[in-house]
Amino acid sequence: MPGKNVLVIHSAADLYGASKNLVRSLVAFQKIDWNPITILPNEGPLVQEIKNLGLEVIILDHGVIRRQNLSLKGIIALLRQLANSFKILNRLMKERGVSLIYTNSNANVVGGLLSRWTNTKHIWHVHEIINHPKWFKVALELYNRFFGDMLLCVSQAVIDNHPLTPKSKLNLLYNGIDTRPFLKTASNLKQELGLKENVILIGMVARVSFWKGQKYFLDVASVLVKSNPNLHFIMVGDAFTGYEYLYEENRAHLEKLGLKDHVTDLGFRTDITNILGGLDIFMLPSILPDPLPTTVLEAMAAGKPVVATSHGGAVEMVQSGETGYLVPWDNAEKAAASFQILIDSPEKRLVMGEKGAQRIKDHFSIEKYIANFGEIISTVTAQKS
Asked: Average pLDDT in the 55-71 region?
């Protein structure tokens, strides 16, 4: 439809939190009669998810900011990618009559440049909380501020991370999920792992990174197995390209703690409903603030009590003592004490899980997300430049 094409720029082709939310955003665009043209930096499972919606996907290495770019060599490589993708996307926008740019994640730079060059409205959807290095945090926030018309923030914690941005440009939009796949999901996970049904299974699902807390998860496990022989722990998730060495670090830490018989690393999995359905307790062990982790929403939707480190968006999601517990991100002994309450009480696990599932329906449903997203997009696009 002429004049209703939106250029959508995303930083990955995986199926983790921000990517899953992108799919929901694309559906929301369709609901208000926008035609998304999605730009991804590489092939991956997200490509087919988008094509299943009947939408177009273009693979283009458009210049995604990663930590390895924060060096002279990395910056030069990034600038080359930006120059090349800018030319290609600028031409695409003219040919297709693109009248809106939507950048999902502030790790993508090119959308800001295109918006100013073409005088096109630009919406950032910010899923990150960045604190260090300080110069980078300030530079990125100023770039987002001056090269965007609106910053959609997935939690109040993300808004608070943007003190230099006018409040008029900041808009809170909680992620939402479709709860239906998580209702009364049958799971064969314990059977797959060769575990008895009375074994208490504790798990985490997250991209392997230095801050998602895989090592901290193992530290907590190490404390708990000393007095609870009926526990088993699983870790689900793969690493970003270039960070595969973290697998070896996690494995070495596991062996150092003597957890070889108590922990299973399942790597990348697509059957997340099966994974969560088989757990007794879910943990978010992030050692840095996690903006609004989708896995917490999914675990709560699956009726599982959630133990999460007490910072970032988790504070807005988990009601400590009601749907789970908020615990320190730097004290495994104290975190383990909250787990022990749930380990000792199957009834508490059940009640907290039920309350968590209801909280998702009330505050984080996909219906609420799509409606709120559509309203915000319509408001921004109706404003005069």
From this structure: 80
DSSP letter assigned to residue 213: -
Here the tokens at position 14 are: 């995986």
Query: Could you tell me which residues are beta bridge partners of residue 326?
Result: 308
- Is there a contact between 282 and 275 (Cβ–Cβ < 8 Å)? no
Q: Helical H runs in 172-243?
A: 189-193, 214-225
Q: 200 Cβ partners below 8 Å, 6+ apart?
A: 228, 230, 231, 232, 280, 281, 343
Q: Work out the average pLDDT over 116-126.
A: 95
Q: How confident is the model at residue 69 (pLDDT cuts 50, 70, 90)?
A: low
What tokens appear for 94 in the block? Answer: 């003219």
Topology (CATH level 3) of domain 5-176+365-382: Rossmann fold (3.40.50)
pLDDT at 74 over 80: no
Q: Report which DSSP code applies to 133.
A: S
Q: Where are the domains of the chain?
A: 5-176+365-382, 180-363
What whole-number distance in Å separates Cα of residue 149 and Cα of residue 131? Answer: 23
Task: Report how far apart the first and last C-alpha atoms of the chain are (Å, whole number).
Answer: 22
CATH 2.60.120.1440 fits 180-363, yes or no: no
CA distance 107 to 278: 34
Taking each helix axis from N to C end, the angle separating 17-31 and 294-301, rounded to the nearest 10 degrees, works out to 80
Pick the closest to residue 327 from 202, 217, 229, 230 (CA basis). Answer: 217
- Cα atoms in the Cβ-side hemisphere of radius 13 Å centred on 137: 13
